[in-house]
């Protein structure tokens, strides 16, 4: 025996690595024969790539296997696949009779890069009868061969639907590309089909490769002074030296026996347990269109089901009901196989949502519908009940989510995205997360810091070492499987997990469902620490602004759906809809289309151009259809038998005449107009109060009286500025169009809004080139270059009892037109921007004379208060935040509200005030122009609306913001009309939605929330509905999740209940029996 040399760790690691990758792995496959390959390049007859072979859209398998389909012989290697195209390959091979009992596979390489699995070409393999065999992806290119697949002559024939999706997140990343749109893509082939062969699998060699891979990874990741590391390293090196590099197969079994003791040494007694669960995070759209996500869902589940049907012990998490719905539509047979695995407990639906949405931008009601729609699909189609909210990749999480989750029946939450924080490291991995209302939800951040682990030794060790609850908790969750573009777990991952389940030097690994994990984690660590409030992500702040048109479309779709449901429900209950049928199926389709557009790479603005071409069209279709439904229902209500207005209308809001919205169909000069109000607070038109969710008659006399009461004075100044006065409201603009003074009469004294020497309404522009992730990130460096854009006051006019001023702002290649409208109680700003800049950020400044170190921001089902100082890094790096509908700043006796109709990104900074104290600079982020992934992001025309309200508390700011989102709707009134009584009213809470229960019972669900952050007594009233019962968010009566409701003593048609601060209540009510003549 030769004497040992001085052992050197890098030398030994390199020795093992080279033998493994250059000798052992290749020896696992033995070529038997090349495949005969034929190709049919799908070609579109029309559209942007018409006539380009292989660039066509997907076609059904029935077309691909038709005898009329013109396949041609394809030589491997050979180029194929323009961007986004589809090529069908027909592959065949004769299987020798003597090999039909052997372990045979096909080895197919469509031309993949060595990196970025899930982001490249993919294929779906079908048998001649159309059955899905499996998918082929980067790092997963094997196809099973069995005697049952052969024809009578022993020949194997398979069809591969190959998608030539371009690799857009390349090396280096974040480079502008024209490939993200069908209108600008290249039509040249992207890929080279490199390999197509029949192989014999040598199982012992393949197993040896897995053994060595596991031990090599362990040796690489253990500390250099670890005795276990040296034992594994030297033992593995000595074992593989028994191999003859020219004939690895001969000694594979022997070497495996030498390695067995190293793999059999059990894990330390105190080792952490990783609960491993297979996962494939499929982005519903991102660097590919929705069309490809549909196919990715099919391909991914084909791979997962193949592994399970072949005997894998894996448990696989299936998030996003939309993906399962796509599979059902695309391939019903695969969906049935999916159901079988769900019933067996091997595929476990998780999350309960329709898609994995952005968790900051959608409204509260939208987040509710994500859960009600997703839960219903999983329950009805797969017989599954989810137990957790599963959002591993959203860009921050609203503080309203714990209560929404709890009321939907979910008491666990998972994400890993907060590990992406730029500066501050989140202090926990297992915790209780407390929302804005006080609801707590058990939460886990997988310490591996990824939702798509390869189960490498590095990731396994990081998961254990990084776990912040070591010593107090013993179990964490570990998600493995290729994601983003799908693909899911592969055999090599499962091999590593199998060998690492109980391995010295490694954490234990145990297959478990997320429910099993959460039950175990909650039991062992019920006293986990508490994090209060939103989960803010110190990254991807630019997603609050990118692709502004999609964000506007989403806000308008949410409003239109509220209108449609409110008025259709009201008309339906009163028997006024055509055929007495509520359009439930249509509204569900509209909601699901909207929910898809709220996916966390669509609504945030971080996808390719193709995605937005489709999303904006889809949202406009939702808006138009929902508004048409609402219009039809309101016309039916307008034609009903006259009825009196409520005897006790809601408390009056500040009187204000609203201009009709663009979609308003009312004749402005009609002698009598019936004005409908969908907002949850009263609106005033020509001095007439329009009750929430009801309608009132407005006459020409009302309009005349209102005009006579309003005093409008406009004075042009010699320096080019102007003074606007409406009643007691006063605004002075300088020649550039900025507001230099804005004051109102508040309780008998004048209150100036603008700090001394400041200018309100100035556009500001800055360079916007973040360190990475262009469309996602907004880094603080923009502040170094931000500057004001000078404008010019070009016009003043009096209109509809208001004073208006128009400002033109040319800059760069762009132009803005700002229209100020001063009324007696506010100033409104409409900004029309034609935007043609690159890598710039456009903001709008609102300096306000308020001394405060915090501000209140509208949020889902409530509001959140954030500091405006920068005392800590946590404060400083929260420099861009989200507001829904409104912002309010206040000091004792003084407040300012700023409302918006579709702007989400804001920053607020504090500045010293002349004469003492501080003032606050509030800035809205209007537009960005990142160049990746959409090089033409936001180019074009945009509209923004804002209102500035004096002496506004949170209630005034919120109610005015609802009016901005939900303007009144008018129609010519029948001669005997009086008004429309609301179907239901509430005092003490805001009605957020009104719609029928989805069980065909005829019951109605009313969703309300307490909006001020105070305990309150809510009174619900209705003349049409009876039997109010508290329910969960799904409308199911529940004594623990629903509020406790009782009739109000001495009042008919009234029910009362308590709501805690920011509490949400869903109330189920039944219809009264319909009587002759209806309502």
Write the layout of secondary structure elements.
Elements: H1 9-27, E1 29-34, E2 36-41, H2 61-64, E3 72-73, E4 78-80, E5 85-94, E6 104-109, E7 122-126, E8 132-136, E9 142-145, E10 155-164, E11 191-193, E12 195-201, H3 203-221, H4 227-240, H5 248-264, E13 273-278, H6 290-309, E14 316-319, H7 321-330, H8 332-343, E15 347-350, H9 364-382, E16 389-390, H10 401-407, E17 412-414, E18 430-434, E19 440-444, H11 457-466, E20 475-480, H12 491-500, E21 508-511, H13 514-524, E22 530-532, H14 548-573, H15 584-597, H16 609-638, E23 672-677, E24 683-685, E25 688-690, E26 694-699, H17 700-709, E27 712-716, E28 722-726, E29 729-733, E30 739-746, E31 749-752, E32 762-767, E33 787-788, E34 792-799, E35 802-811, E36 814-823, E37 826-835, E38 840-848, E39 854-859, E40 862-867, H18 873-876, E41 881-882, E42 886-891, E43 894-900, E44 905-912, E45 918-928, E46 940-950, H19 954-965, E47 969-972, E48 979-980, E49 985-987, E50 990-996, E51 1004-1009, E52 1016-1021, E53 1025-1031, E54 1046-1047, E55 1054-1059, E56 1064-1071
Parallel strand pairs: 13-20, 13-21, 14-15, 16-17, 17-19, 18-22
Antiparallel strand pairs: 1-12, 2-3, 2-5, 4-11, 5-10, 6-9, 6-12, 7-8, 7-10, 18-19, 23-26, 23-47, 24-25, 26-48, 27-28, 28-29, 29-30, 30-31, 32-33, 32-38, 34-35, 35-36, 36-37, 37-46, 38-45, 39-40, 39-42, 41-44, 42-43, 43-46, 44-45, 49-52, 50-51, 51-56, 52-55, 53-56, 54-55
Helix pairs in contact: 1-3, 1-4, 3-4, 3-5, 3-12, 4-5, 6-7, 6-8, 7-8, 7-9, 14-15, 14-16, 15-16
